[in-house]
Specification:
92% of the residues lie in helices and 0% in strands. The chain is mainly alpha-helical.
């Protein structure tokens, strides 16, 4: 019915926004890291650990968004 369609829409919109936000964030993180290494190559190893931390946190936000979309679907 209409309620089920609204729930499916909530999952689609929630998952889509979460995925697009994480994609933009990941691109920004990796782009800035490449730019930083190009400017100061001696800091590559230090920047790499910071990059992976930022990437993990960005992807965690995408997973939380998906979980919230599933909660909206089943409640």
């Amino acid at each position: 019915g209409v309620a089920e369609a609204g729930r499916a829409g909530a999952v689609g919109v929630g998952g889509g926004l979460g995925a697009s936000g994480a994609g933009i964030g990941s691109g920004f993180i990796f782009g800035k890291e490449i730019e930083s290494v190009a400017r100061q190559p001696e800091l590559k190893s230090e920047l790499q650990s910071i990059r992976w931390l930022g990437f993990a946190l960005t992807e965690a936000v995408a997973f939380y968004t998906f979980i919230f979309a599933l909660i909206a679907f089943f409640l």
